[in-house]
Structures are given as C-alpha cells and as structure tokens.
Design brief:
The chain is α/β, with parallel strands linked by helices. 40% of the residues lie in helices and 13% in strands. Helix 5 runs parallel beside helix 7 (132-143) and helix 12 runs parallel beside helix 14 (369-383).
Length: 412
C-alpha cells in the first residue's frame, strides 16, 4: 500500500497501482505538465462510444445514489442546449475523497468534463465547488491549459443538503441552494432550464480514465461486475485514516483489521451502521444488497473501548440542523429524532417512540435528507442495542466518548 500526505485530506494512499491518484505519491499535486506525461491529452469520444463503454464496465456514479452513468448519458440530448455540471460540493463532513481529487489531480477532473462535453456536443461546463482550496486548485488548473476556457468554476454555498445536486442547480439558477423535490431531475430541468448531465467529482475522473484507457485496460482491475477502483475515506480504527484508492471487490477486512464484529459506519451520515462489514467485499452492488450502500464512500469504525452513543446523538442533531425546513419530516421530525438519540445516550429513551417517529418520516420528505438521516439513526439503534440497554440501566457505560465522526466546529 502506498501512503502519501495531502494537506486537505490527511493521509492519501492506494491498494495496488493508483489510477485516479497516479503521480500523487511523488508530487502531491499533479500539475498540467505532469498530468499530460501520465495521461496524455483527453481522449475525446463519441456519445455512442461513451454510452457503450460506461455500460460495459458498469460505471456507477460515485455520489450517494450510485446511478448508472450510461443511463444518465442516454437521457441527455446532444447539442448546444445540453449542459454539464461537475458537482464538487462535498457537504459530507466524513468524506474527503472529492476534495482530494480537486486539490491533488484537478486535471483529471477537467479531462472528464471535457470528454462528456464532447460526447454531448455542448460547450456549457460548470464546476460547482464550495471548498476554497479546491476552488483555487481548479481555477489554477484551468489557467494551465488552453482547452479549459469554456469551463466556469463557481463557488457554491457550504452545507450538507446544499451540496445535493438539485440544490446546487437551484443555487446556480436562483441563488437559493435548496432541493426542488424528488421529481425534479437534472436531465429534464437543470442549469438555466437546460437538460444537464450532473455527477460528482469522482465520476468525472473515472470517465476520464475510461476514455483514455479503453474498456479492456480499465477492466483489468476490480471485479467482472464492477471493474475499476473507488476512492474511500477511512476514519477511526482502520488500517490508516485518510483517503485510499482501492480496487472494487477489495475485502473490507483488509481496511478493517482486528475485531470482526465491531460496529462500522458505511456510507457517511446518510449511511448505515453494521456489524457485518468485515465479511463484505467493497462493491456497490454487494454493499447495497447487504443493506449498507457505499453512499459517499465513507468507512468509519469507532475505536474499541469508547462509547459511540454521544457521538451518534451529536451527528443526529447536526443532521436536524442541516435541514432546509421545507417539509414537516425535516422541520418537526428530525429535531424530535435528535432528541430521541440524545435520550439514548442519556439512558432515558423510549425505543418504541423513536421507531414510531422513524416510520412516520420515511418516504415523506421533499428530498432525500429525512430518509438518509433516519437510516443513520435507525441502523445505530440496531447496531448499538446492547450499549443502549447498558445506558438505560445505569445512565452511562463509563467509557470515554468516541471522536471519529467529524463535524463542523459549530456543531460540536
């Protein structure tokens, strides 16, 4: 395993030969000249080629939904009306993977945007990013190359829900970064009302690799069902905290040495707590089938001998505060659930009350935020049921609180 350092991401490394992170171990930041030496010029491909290639390698979006890229490409008409949105608004506090790409290999991200724009025959490319270091890195990268003049890099609002793609589009269109409802899809109504191909940073970097390598070489690593690699943000009791590039299909036990049944958070703060992660391979399809989708690419495991309930309560409160307050499940439901999670930590909770509230919230929000927050909380109740019982009996377990789930300073 190669381990390097990155100022914004902490430790950065790879299992096997790096692809997305090629050159970062020697350079830290890969500038235009070194990028060209590693990857050559962007491999501009036809729409037909790109759709078939992304389908052949089963390329799934590297954001939370893992939507098939080929299906998304097929939904966008070609021509000047189409738009490209590279969503760099990484609002997930536990994830650093997209910011690592933007600060360490920005030219790979730009290549991916140019490949998609060529395939869809459009000149309209927007990269939306809220992180100041990522913004400066991308801006500097566009100035290093003559083919990036059509790209607009736009600073967006910081925030968890504000980084959701429909919220980003609404922010670009109206200045109000708020999700517009589950049925408002970018491919029908995106930037300035245009049909928009929108995905996150890692997706575009993967597209650049696929276009440059071709299907056969791209598929030489990973699994037959999910070729290629993925970026994962590891934290807590793991092989090495930070961002790591791994071949798809890597056994999670390689990243989680030691106790096999320890609780692990998969997917981030809209993710799932599980005690069976040790036995699973890291593929999106397998993790989804196991009820723990990879989501934002986060794998976090608390340290042994710590109490996670106060930290879960803190994240739950933060999720409630991040709500846009535009529907009842967010405005009323999430704060009430955050109270329940704090009560679990205090040893005064009613499990039946919390479960009843969760059932009332699921599937009823104006966006996916309530469902994601409920998934985090409900899976925590199952994973930490023994700890909850100890707190109920004694008021505390006597262990020091866990500190592996990062939150903005103001939320602590």
């Amino acid at each position: 395993m190669t381990i390097i350092d990155n100022a914004q991401a902490g430790h950065v490394g790879s299992l096997g030969t790096p692809r997305l992170l090629a050159g970062v171990d020697q350079l830290g930041h890969v500038d235009a000249a070194h990028h060209r030496a590693l990857h050559g010029d962007p491999a501009l491909r036809s729409r037909k080629w790109l759709i078939e290639a992304t389908r052949d390698v089963n390329l799934l979006g590297r954001g939370g939904a893992a939507f098939p890229v080929a299906t998304k490409l097929e939904a966008i008409p070609t021509g000047s009306r189409a738009a490209i949105l590279v969503n760099g608004s990484e609002g997930e506090p536990a994830s650093r993977k997209d910011r690592t790409l933007m600060t360490a290999v920005p030219h790979l991200v730009i290549d991916g945007a140019l490949v998609v724009a060529y395939a869809l025959e459009t000149q309209v490319i927007t990269i939306a990013v809220h992180d100041p270091w990522s913004y400066e890195s991308l801006l500097r990268a566009t100035r290093e190359r003559p083919d990036a003049g059509r790209i607009s890099i736009v600073r967006t609002r910081d925030g968890f829900v504000g980084g959701e793609v429909r919220a980003v589009i609404n922010g670009l269109n109206s200045g109000v970064a708020r999700p517009g409802g589950r049925r408002v899809l970018p491919h029908t109504h995106g930037i300035s009302g245009r049909p928009t191909f929108a995905s996150n940073i890692e997706t575009f970097a993967q597209i650049a690799l696929l276009a440059g390598m071709g299907v056969a070489d791209y598929a030489r690593t990973g699994t037959p069902m999910e070729p290629g690699t993925s970026l994962i943000t590891l934290s807590g009791d793991v092989v090495r905290p930070g961002v790591i590039e791994v071949p798809n299909g890597t056994p999670l036990e390689l990243l989680l040495p030691g106790q096999a049944d320890a609780p692990v958070l998969i997917g981030g703060y809209h993710g799932t707590w599980t005690r069976t992660a040790h036995d699973l391979p890291l593929t999106r399809s397998t993790l989804r089938a196991a009820g723990a989708p990879l989501g934002a690419g986060v794998v976090a495991r608390p340290f042994p001998g710590t109490c996670v309930l106060p930290e879960i309560a803190g994240v739950s409160r933060w999720l409630a505060n991040e709500s846009e307050g535009q529907c009842g499940p967010c405005f009323f439901g999430l704060p009430a659930l955050a109270d329940d999670m704090q009560a679990f930590a205090d040893g005064t909770a009613s499990e039946s009350q919390a479960v009843r509230r969760m059932k009332q919230i699921r599937g009823r929000g104006a966006c996916a935020h309530p469902d994601g927050a409920v998934q985090f909380m409900s899976s925590a109740i199952v994973a930490f049921i023994d700890d909850i019982e100890i707190h109920r009996r004694h008021g505390t377990c006597g262990r020091p609180p866990s500190t592996v789930l990062p939150l903005p300073r103001s939320a602590r």
